[in-house]
Specification:
The complex is a heterodimer of chains A (about 150) and B (about 270).
Chain A (H helix, E strand, L loop, with lengths): L1 E6 L2 E6 L6 H7 L18 E4 L2 E4 L12 E3 L5 H13 L9 H14 L5 H7 L11 H11 L3
Parallel strand pairs in A: 1-5
Antiparallel strand pairs in A: 1-2, 3-4, 3-5
Helix pairs in contact in A: 2-3, 2-5
Chain B lengths: L2 E6 L4 H10 L4 E3 L3 H5 L3 E7 L8 E4 L2 E5 L4 H6 L1 H5 L4 H6 L5 H6 L2 H6 L6 H7 L3 E5 L3 E4 H6 L7 E7 L4 E8 L6 E10 L2 E7 L6 E2 L1 H9 L4 H14 L10 H23 L1
Classes of the chains: A alpha+beta (about 150), B alpha+beta (about 270).
The complex binds flavin-adenine dinucleotide and FE2/S2 (inorganic) cluster (2 copies).
The site of one FE2/S2 (inorganic) cluster has 12 residues of chain A, from loops.
Chain lengths: ~150, ~270
């Protein structure tokens, strides 16, 4: 099946299987920032944006991306790098395995929430599991990055 | 993960229903999160994306919600945040995470009648009707009692009344299923107490609701209604909790929910 989509601001036409998931399609086209872990829709690692909204690319069928705008870390590399520097400076990353999905969701939150409270930040990021950090360092880094108290 | 041999994206509900009923394992796709947990071999998958069923709107005294509306839209829509003390946003807000709720659909969440559902518990506390393509429009409580037949849930209708409501639950961890969930609402003097994740499908505690509607709202009477709900409903055991634990929890959560609604009504 052929789908036409805008991926990181570039129009592409790709052939996909009808039951192919978006994470696999993106990876097969070299977008290797997109990763999978749980594949049961629970961990958030595979987060990408569809029409600027965070979604799980392990759960989204590629055919549903037809006609849509898809963004991966490769498409927001400057913002991702800025945030990654804060993460490192705050010591809030260990193995880094969870980072691709976490970064995408933090950037989505930045666009959606104005001056969020700790509670709102935690709630927005609940779907991003991290097995190393215990989350407090991440919260500190997110607050520093967003410039909130 | 499921597999599928063919996929159609019909522009008419009639076509979607025809394909659905053509073959036993032809299947409607919602957001695919639950389907993905299994390994169903689907012959023809029916994607409802082209049917404009992704909306929440106010119409003729009802809130109308299309089946393909995501749980995140339920959570963030201004109408639902303002109505019924934000009951629906509250109920869906603990389901996994934002990205997940952007994927999964309300139509699937109701049609599948999951016992653990937070959505069904909240909807039952409101005057909710489901509209099925073939089965027509009926109260949610009636739909839940029907045996499963192949059909398409097209939309939900929630009566836009002045009901006060609340939703409470207990989870072992943030994104786990509820061990028990409770929704309570009050319209004029009419109380509705709903308990779900027992772990059976949510149901209304009919006797406790009726009794509470006859009472004044002293602390003892609220407690009595909560105890009555726990006696009236059946509880079961699974890895999240025993029947005894759920019954005890029911008394506490129902009483708290009644107290919350009573204080909203003051
Ligand atoms: C890991 C995980 C954790 C979850 N935790 C919770 C939780 O804590 N609380 C909670 O309330 N829910 C929870 N859910 C359920 C979730 O919220 C959705 O209800 C569920 O995923 C189904 O939605 P979907 O859009 O993914 O449907 P799908 O997986 O696409 O479909 C599910 C079923 O519904 C059928 N279907 C879909 N749409 C329609 C329609 N319009 N008409 C008729 N049939 C239809 C499909 O054929 C399929 O049989 C969880 C799900 C998962 C996968
Ligand atoms: S791989 Fe998609 S949620 Fe875990
Ligand atoms: S830093 Fe290792 S999983 Fe998050």
């Amino acid at each position: 099946m052929q789908i036409t989509l805008t991926i990181n601001d570039k129009l592409v036409i790709w052939d996909v299987e009808k039951d192919e998931i978006l994470a696999d399609t993106l990876r097969s086209h070299g977008l290797l920032s997109v990763k999978k872990a749980c594949e049961t829709s629970c961990c958030g690692l595979c987060t990408v944006w569809v029409e600027d909204k965070s979604v799980l690319s392990c759960t989204t069928l590629s055919v549903r991306a037809h006609g849509k705008k898809i963004t991966t870390i490769e498409g927001v590399s400057k913002d991702a790098e800025d945030f990654a520097r804060v993460l490192t400076a705050e010591g809030s990353e260990q193995c880094g395995f969870c980072s691709p999905g976490f970064v995408m969701n933090v950037l989505a939150m930045k666009k959606e929430l104005v001056n969020p409270s700790d509670k709102e930040i935690i709630h927005y990021l609940t779907g991003n599991l991290c097995r190393c950090t215990g989350y407090m360092g991440q919260l500190r880094a997110v607050k520093t990055y967003l410039g909130v108290q | 993960m499921f597999t599928l041999s063919d996929l159609v994206q019909p522009e008419k509900l009639e076509t979607a229903y025809q394909v659905l009923t053509n073959k036993r394992n032809n299947t409607i796709l919602g957001g695919c999160a639950f389907l993905k947990m299994g390994s169903k071999r689907i012959s023809t998958a029916i994607d409802l994306s082209n049917l404009n069923l992704n909306y929440i709107k106010e119409q003729d005294g009802f809130i109308e919600i299309g089946a393909m509306t995501s749980l995140r839209e339920l959570e963030t829509h201004i109408l639902l945040r303002e109505q019924f003390n934000g009951l629906l946003p509250k109920a869906v807000s603990s389901i996994i995470g934002v990205q997940f709720r952007n994927c999964v659909t309300v139509g699937a969440s109701v049609f599948a009648k999951y016992g653990f559902s937070d959505v069904i518990t909240a909807l039952l506390a409101l005057n909710t009707e489901v509209e099925l393509y073939k089965g027509g429009r009926m109260p949610l409580a009636d739909f839940l009692k029907q045996p499963k037949v192949k059909d398409i849930l097209v939309r939900l209708w929630i009566k836009l009344d002045t009901r006060q409501a609340t939703y409470l639950n207990l989870r072992k961890s943030a994104s786990d299923y509820s061990i028990l969930n409770v929704a309570v609402s009050k319209l004029d003097n009419q109380w509705t107490i709903v308990v779900g994740a027992r772990p059976r499908r949510a149901s209304i505690a009919i006797k406790a609701s009726a009794a509470l509607s006859q009472r004044s709202l002293s602390d003892a009477e609220m407690e009595e209604a909560a105890n009555q709900a726990a006696e009236e409903l059946a509880f079961g055991t699974n890895m999240r909790g025993t029947a005894e634990y759920r019954k005890a929890l029911c008394k506490v959560l129902v009483k708290r929910a009644i107290m919350e609604v009573a204080s909203e009504c003051k």
